[in-house]
Design brief:
With 1291 residues, this protein is mainly alpha-helical. The protein contains 56 helices and 12 strands. It has a two-stranded antiparallel sheet. Helix 11 packs across helix 14. The longest helix has 31 residues, at 390-420. The radius of gyration is 42 Å and the shape is globular.
């Protein structure tokens, strides 16, 4: 059995015995041979000792034990592998793949020390066997997986937690075994050889091996240190330090630097960044930057201050012990009665100790402290900073310096690209933010060079960190089970944000002017945006001691201090600072009263309406018989309304009725015909072939019908409207962005609340453990609130005064001079106020807000008296009786809003909804305010049935024009548009919000229709809204708004634009109008040639054009044309909409010359100066054809007006096109004239893109080529041309 030539003999016997016989002697012999072979024991061990060790390995599976023994054996320093060593390694990989939830295979292999005794020797001695080497690396990567990755999280079950700790212990032994230069030398050599291969020579197996080596190094560095077992002090080499030193000696650090800086190896950037972060896990960047430079003066002063504090406390303790010494024996200390201090009963307290201990007497002595529940305990600190050995710190310092100089910018750029393109794993952005904070702090502490960290020194980086910080904060509030993990990620993001601010602050004192200018630009952008200013307020208000450790609060206080200091200095240097301001404006839903009349309208009796009808009928008949009567400019619906177009029929009837009542017969008839085209279904507004007589009867019915009208909101006090708006959860919210002048004190007042003050007091309690800078930040903020804002009473709190008492009685109070001075200042203010206001002592028991502070200092009732003019009037007995009567009459009606009905019937002083509800509760008619909550406001979670219903409704209405509107109309549980849109996105039914936009019908211009037909065609087009990324809190109800400015004027709207342009010419604005027309024509040419589809700004370069852009009438013309005005606070110039095509742009340019065309309409000949162009269908010889460049090549002689020639040519083309369209529509176009004019029109289409040419069918092309030369009229060309344009618009 002990024959070394039979490697499996002992294993076979052991397996045979374990599977069948239980012979103790055979088992002992098997184990004796196994131990002799495995642990190199030349002399046989006793059988009992073998059986004792078997008790340790009795849980090991026999097959697994046999597989491990088949790997090989170590003889001296030489490892002899077995012939089937490779198969055994693969078997172990297979066993690990199929292990159970308790990780039994992993625990058994760790207990058998397979990695230390077999895998590492195979790795170092059999590197030339590539298949075996690859398999061993693969097995080691699996064995060294983090315990958290194996179990998912720290188990709460005791048995599973025991297994977790076992795996963690094995990983710590693996880390100690890897701390050798020989092991990392083999890994470094292999990695170096693989990186020498070019991309064309590198195989897929080589890339896998590179990744596995990096993962192995990552896994080993990730193993946490066992501080209790190591018991290492600072400046002593721990296991982690020995591992770092082995990496340095093997040259692995140089390979990491190469991978970081090489542009060809960017696919390993995330692995490298993770390894680097684990290398510097326990290091402090400021301390690391000062290694080897001697002790700095600041460090010496800090150490001296700490020693002085310790010396003062020691002397105070000595004095206390000296006073406690008594001449008498301790047995004769005596007992004393403390007069005035009652015990549990009516007697005074009896004190059984010496008088010198009376100062420390407390009623809490001897009591058991109250046990704090686990869910309420404060979060524990996880990060531990220690000082490594000096040689390790020197190596790490040099590594940091070289990394910053050569690798930081390319590596961080590659990682940021992976993160933005979502090519990284979940939560990989935390390594990015750690590297940002660590290396920027090292660069700032070592030798500040902004160029080394320029990749992360931008506003985009601020935005990236702020977005992740906000996301972590929101996830911590929603994912309560993983709140601690989200809080740690939140702390990392906060550290990165703090270091970004510190670096920008350091740039302010840089001697380079360019660096200071860059800092000013960054600060200008950061202080302008509202999100960056609101960030700290939100973090303070949502600070939770259960999830955030004390270090998070310390970093938050220091970051806020730095931000306020930079903001205050920036405001002083600028004088006045304009910042962005966002305000939520709530628009109430319009309430419809059945059979009601709007308050502004006068009700008419049926008799009065009958008397009005004859006069209206005559006007309507004249309009109906007028052949020139057009309805193109009349739109029967409100495109900007949140009500879908399909639901605006009643409103259209109301508009028709209002027009009839106002005597506007043409307007009423036009609305009726337009509404018939928009809503043809059901013949509500008549059939398409309705006769004039039928139209008259339909209009009469609309006039006499009692249509429901909208109730106009009653104007009231501003405060009452705000109270009512806050109660409406289903209201539409519009975030208005504007600019305002920034006031630093107003911003500072936002911090004057009890939540923020409580967080500062919590940090101040540990003033002894805080650094001097942290205590300064706390004192500075409290001083700002108390002195700068004059709110000393905000700090009048008993817990804070107890802390002041502890501070003032501290023997080392001299080391905290700033805190002592501030405490005396607050106490002095309190006693001065207490002399006037005796209630101040009671106010000490409560945290206060600004209103209470004002009452304490200015007198109670001052807040109410100061705002008495905004308070609601008292309820009279008559009003209360009416309120009670209305409530009792309507409270049992199902499906009715009781409060809304009461408000509609109250005939006294206008009341808000909140006032009615609160008074009902005060009168005892209702139990609680919650009884009046509206249905649908409390629905938050979606049940499975509701999700299935939503999916069914989406599939049912997916092909309709308004998917979201139909879903909201038919869904059972009523929800807001925002909730439904978010759920559709979450279920994956839609990929983007744009798919849920309503599709609108828009009328085509008469010139777009063949044969002059002006009837409405069903041209469907999606809404052009785009989401604004800078408004995260904006509700998606506003996504339904119609962007009317982006629609060009069409049809008869050209006439009004032309009239407006003629009036502007009479005022002397001809040159700005010509400039505007040239801009539109140039934009049309650019879009026709290059397909550009972005909004084009109108930038006036001359003083005359600039004055015109500020003219109100000129701006009215721009709005009439559909040019979009600038967004306040974001844009400066008016913009040509991105959705306009080249044809639409030319059509708008034509409308500016409407009046001039009418004057020239009677002249059959064109302007002599206009160039004559030939029809493209005319036959020319190749020698006679000219290219466009030759056709428009300028001559050497130019007239003074030569530079305006392109605009005149475009203007002439536009005039001819409009003239041709009008004459053709009126039927007055002769074939010769039409041919000549259409030839000039076709010239404009000579440079059509290939995409549009491919849209034409071959039949149409052949037909056009065959007919155009004979008829000399390009009618088919024009029709086909407009069809192509419409298809492009729809696309």
């Amino acid at each position: 059995m002990s024959n070394p030539d039979l490697p499996h003999e002992w294993a076979k016997n052991a397996g045979y015995v374990c599977g069948g016989y239980r012979s103790l002697r055979i088992l002992g012999l098997c184990l004796q041979d196994y131990l002799a072979r495995r642990f190199h024991l030349l002399s046989p061990l006793p059988v009992l000792l073998a059986l004792g060790l078997w008790c340790v390995l009795d849980t090991m599976n026999c097959e697994l034990l046999a597989t491990c023994s088949a790997l090989g054996y170590l003889e001296g320093d030489i490892y002899h592998k077995e012939p089937d060593c490779l198969e055994s390694v693969k078997d172990l990989i297979r066993y690990l793949r199929h292990e159970d939830e308790s990780r039994d295979v992993r625990r058994q292999l760790g207990a058998a020390q397979i990695l230390q005794s077999d895998l590492l020797p195979i790795l170092t001695q059999h590197r030339q066997d590539k298949p075996l080497f690859d398999a061993v690396i693969r097995l080691m990567v699996n064995l060294t997986q983090p315990a958290l990755l194996c179990f998912g999280s720290v188990p709460k079950d005791p048995s599973v937690r025991h297994h977790f700790l076992q795996v963690l212990t094995h990983l710590q032994t693996y880390k100690e075994a890897f701390a050798s230069e020989k092991t990392f030398g083999v890994l470094s050599e292999t990695l170096y050889e693989l990186l020498q291969l070019g991309w064309e020579d590198r195989q897929e197996e080589d890339n896998l091996l590179i990744e596995r080596i990096l993962l192995l190094v990552r896994n080993i560095l990730h193993v946490p240190a066992d501080l209790e077992q190591e018991k290492r002090i600072d400046d002593d080499a721990s296991i982690h330090d020995r591992l770092l030193w082995a990496i340095h000696l093997s040259g692995m650090d140089d390979l990491l630097l190469f991978l970081s800086s090489s542009s060809a190896e960017q696919q390993w950037s995330l692995h490298v960044l993770e390894i680097v972060s684990l290398m510097f896990r326990d290091q402090n960047p400021e301390q690391l930057a000062g290694v080897g430079q001697g002790r700095l003066a600041q460090e010496r002063s800090t150490d001296m201050a700490e020693l002085e504090v310790l010396r003062q406390r020691e002397m105070a303790e000595k004095r206390t012990r000296a006073l406690q010494r008594s001449n008498r024996h301790s047995r004769f200390g005596g007992s004393y009665i403390v007069q005035g201090l009652k015990s549990i009963g009516e007697r005074d307290v009896i004190f059984h100790k010496g008088l010198h201990n009376l100062r420390n007497y407390s009623s809490d002595l001897g009591k058991q402290p109250r046990r704090v529940p686990k869910r309420r305990q404060a979060a524990q600190e996880l990060s531990v900073h220690r000082r490594s050995a000096l040689n390790v710190r020197l190596f790490l310092r040099d590594f940091c310096s070289e990394f910053l100089e050569n690798c930081y910018n390319p590596l961080m750029g590659a990682v940021k690209d992976h993160l933005l393109r979502e090519r990284a794993q979940q939560h990989d952005e935390t390594y990015y933010m750690w590297a940002l904070a660590f290396f920027m702090a090292f660069n700032r502490a070592a030798s500040f060079r902004p160029g080394f960290v320029s990749e992360t020194l931008s506003v985009r980086t601020f935005h990236f960190v702020e977005q992740n910080l906000t996301n972590y904060y929101e996830m911590m509030l929603t994912d309560r089970k993983e709140a601690a993990s989200w809080a740690r990620r939140m702390h990392l993001a906060l550290k990165a944000y703090q270091e970004l601010l510190a670096t920008v602050n350091e740039m302010d004192i840089c001697p380079d002017e360019a660096v200071r200018e860059s800092s000013r630009i960054i600060k200008n952008n950061i202080f302008y945006m509202m999100e960056y200013r609101e960030l700290f307020l939100a973090l303070f208000r949502k600070f939770d001691e259960r999830f955030h450790p004390r270090s998070f609060l310390r970093d938050l206080v220091e970051t806020t201090h730095l931000f306020l200091k930079m903001l205050e200095r920036f405001c002083r240097s600028r004088g006045n600072l304009m910042v962005q301001n966002k305000r939520k404006k709530r628009k109430k839903k319009k309430k419809v009263q059945d059979q009601g009349v709007a308050p502004g309208n006068v009700s008419h009796s049926p008799g009065e309406l009958e008397t009005l009808w004859p006069a209206l009928e005559e006007q309507l008949l004249r309009c109906a018989q007028d052949p020139e009567f057009r309805t193109d400019s009349i739109i029967p619906f409100d495109a900007a309304s949140e009500v879908p177009v399909e639901e605006q029929r009643v409103e259209a009837m109301v508009r028709i009725q209002d027009s009839l009542l106002a005597g506007q017969a043409p307007q009423a008839l036009g609305l009726l015909r337009s509404a018939r085209e928009v809503w043809p279904e059901g013949n509500v507004f008549g059939s398409p072939v309705t006769s004039p007589g039928e139209e008259m009867q339909l209009l009469k019915q609309i006039l006499l019908a009692p249509l429901p009208r909208q109730q106009e909101p009653i104007e009231g006090d501003a405060d009452e409207e705000e109270e009512e708006e806050e109660e409406e959860e289903e209201e539409l919210q519009v975030v208005q962005v504007s600019e305002k002048e920034f006031n630093f004190l107003d911003y500072l007042k936002r911090f004057a609340c009890s939540t923020i003050v409580r967080a500062y007091v919590l940090l101040l309690r540990s003033y002894r453990q805080n650094s001097a800078h942290t205590n300064h930040c706390v004192a500075k903020m409290l001083h700002r609130l108390a002195h700068d804002l004059g709110m000393e009473a905000l700090l009048f709190q008993l817990s804070l005064f107890c802390l002041f008492n502890q501070l003032l009685s501290d023997p080392a109070a001299g080391a905290y001079k700033e805190l002592v001075t501030f405490a005396k200042y607050i106490l002095g203010k309190f006693f001065a106020l207490a002399a006037v206001n005796q209630k101040a002592f009671v106010e000490l028991l409560f945290w206060k807000n600004t209103a209470v502070v004002r009452e304490m200092t200015q007198g109670y009732g001052s807040v109410d008296s100061g705002s008495s003019n905004h308070r609601a009037a008292a309820w009279s007995p008559e009003e209360e009786a009416q309120l009670q009567e209305l409530y009792l009459a309507h409270k049992d009606v199902e499906g009715q809003d009781v409060v809304g009905t009461i408000l509609a019937h109250l005939k006294t002083v206008p009341r808000t909804r909140r006032q009615v509800i609160h008074h009902l509760v005060q009168m005892g008619l209702a139990d609680s305010v919650k009884d009046f909550q509206r249905k649908g406001t409390q629905i938050v979670l979606w049940t499975e049935d509701q999700e299935l219903e939503l999916q069914r409704l989406y599939e049912e209405f997916q092909g309709s024009d308004d998917v979201l509107g139909h879903i909201m109309k038919n869904i059972t549980a009523k929800r807001s548009r925002a909730r439904i849109v978010d759920k559709l996105l979450a279920l994956g039914l839609v990929s983007e919000r744009r798919q849920l936009y309503k599709k609108r019908r828009k009328k085509l211009a008469p010139s777009c229709m063949p044969n002059g037909d002006a009837s409405l065609k069903g041209s469907w087009q999606e809404d052009p809204e785009e989401e604004e990324e800078h408004l995260p809190e904006e509700e998606s109800e506003e996504e339904e708004e119609e962007d009317l400015e982006a629609e060009p004027v069409q049809g008869s709207s050209f006439l009004s634009a032309g009239n407006l342009g003629q009036s502007l010419r009479q005022e002397g604005l001809s040159a700005p109008l010509l400039w505007l027309q040239n801009c539109l024509i140039r934009a049309a040419d650019d879009r026709q040639e290059g397909g550009c589809s972005q909004a084009i700004p109108l930038v006036p370069l001359t003083e005359e054009n600039e004055d015109a852009m500020e003219n109100g009438q000129f701006q009215h013309l721009l709005r009439k044309l559909g040019i979009r005005p600038p967004i306040p606070g974001q844009e400066t110039f008016w913009r040509i909409p991105a959705k306009w095509s080249s044809t639409q742009l030319r059509r708008v340019a034509i409308s500016l010359n409407q009046q001039e065309e009418e004057e020239r309409e009677e002249e059959p000949e064109l302007h002599p100066g206009a160039p004559v162009e030939h029809h493209p269908s005319e036959e020319h010889s190749p020698s006679e054809e000219h290219s466009p460049s030759e056709e428009h090549r300028p001559s050497e002689e130019h007239s003074p007006s030569e530079e305006h020639r392109p605009s005149k040519e475009h203007r002439a083309k536009a005039l001819r096109a409009l003239l041709s369209a009008r004459k053709k529509k009126a039927g007055r176009v002769s074939p010769e004239v039409t041919s000549e004019e259409e030839t000039s029109g076709d010239k404009e289409w000579k440079r059509v893109s290939k995409k549009r040419e491919l849209l034409d069918s071959d039949e149409e092309g052949a037909e056009g080529r065959g007919q155009a030369p004979e008829l000399r009229t390009p009618v088919l060309h024009k029709k086909k041309r407009f069809q192509i344009q419409d298809d492009d618009d729809d696309d």
